[in-house]
Design a protein that fits this description.
The protein is an alpha/beta fold. The protein folds into two domains: 2-117, 3-Layer(aba) Sandwich (Rossmann fold), CATH 3.40.50.720; 122-152 and 201-305 and 329-350, Dihydrodipicolinate Reductase, domain 2 (2-Layer Sandwich), CATH 3.30.360. It has twelve helices and 13 strands. The protein has helices spanning 2-10, 25-39, 50-55, 71-80, 95-107, 122-132, 170-174, 184-187, 202-205, 207-217, 311-321, 329-343, and strands at residues 19-21, 45-47, 61-64, 84-87, 112-114, 139-146, 226-234, 243-252, 257-262, 269-274, 277-282, 285-289, 349-350. Helix 5 (95-107) runs antiparallel to helix 12 (329-343).
Length: 351
Amino acid sequence: MGTGNMRVFLGLPECRVVAVCDAYQDRREKAREIVDAYNGDKVCAMIADWRELVARRDIDALMLAPQDHWHALMATAAAAAGKDMYCEKPIGMSVEEGQKVRQAIRQHQRIFQAGTWQRSQVKFRFACELARSGYLGRIHTVEVSTEGPHYRPSYKGSTDPQAPPAGFDWKMWRGPAPDRPYNPGRVAWPDWYLIYDYCVGFAVNWGVHHLDIALWGLPELAAKPCEIQCRGSFRKEGFTDNIDQWDATYTYADGLKLVFKDEHQLKTGCRFIGDKGWVHVDRSGLWAEPASLLKVKVKETETRLYNSQHHQANFLDCVRTRKDPVSDVDATFKASTSACSPTSPRGCRRS
């Protein structure tokens, strides 16, 4: 997401990219070439240690897209240094990390936009407004499903320790993760997503997207106590060890249920089910029963949600106005917590 996000920011007239940072020398060089070609000069700095980037006083905001295990440490350091940030999701690897990020952002009065860009898409906002404005009646069930199990490790070689390749700072890449010897299978894609040292798993990394929409459409899911029951299977190929498939149910005292499963068990996306109908939204489309719900024009007097037309531009707007963006730190903390809660080895019974 680093290069992809950077290209989007480069295209916004309000933004000038002045430095790039990566643990891989070849990736730093490629990123700098992209920036220099766009800016028409050769002044973009190339930095190997992210702490030097955070310390620069001429930088107003950062785009953070490292592996998940770095998110909380970088975000809290950036906030303490007075930097606003666009940070990839999830907010951290645990509930505690998320709490520390939220505390740092609020304490230092920073602008935080998470990469949960579905909030800047019309169909997701419309589905949530239908749910919030009563068009589905009383909502009794919310179903969420995300991708995950179809991702398999790409590295098939030896798991023995190896020397890091030239131009790659393994110690920096590993950072706060446990001290393990280098092996290509730890840093390959999508392999690192499947290793608990660096990512809780696709249930969290991907799940946070659709769980965020569930909470946007029905905020009470994050406002009331619930009981969580979860069954899951865990990966065992090579270095991979985080959650593979999952089936979690969040049950609330009033009978409301949030069902969270992987792509093999439920249609991906978020579905709000009420006693008058349902609406299902995913990146691939929008469906409803009755179908007439898709023609509803939500009135200005009903619940209208934050209208962001462009996720990165919304962040820059908020850097100037000092107002919270559409995917602020509180929303991101709640969605990340909802994803983390049932899917760690402690939260799921291994099978």
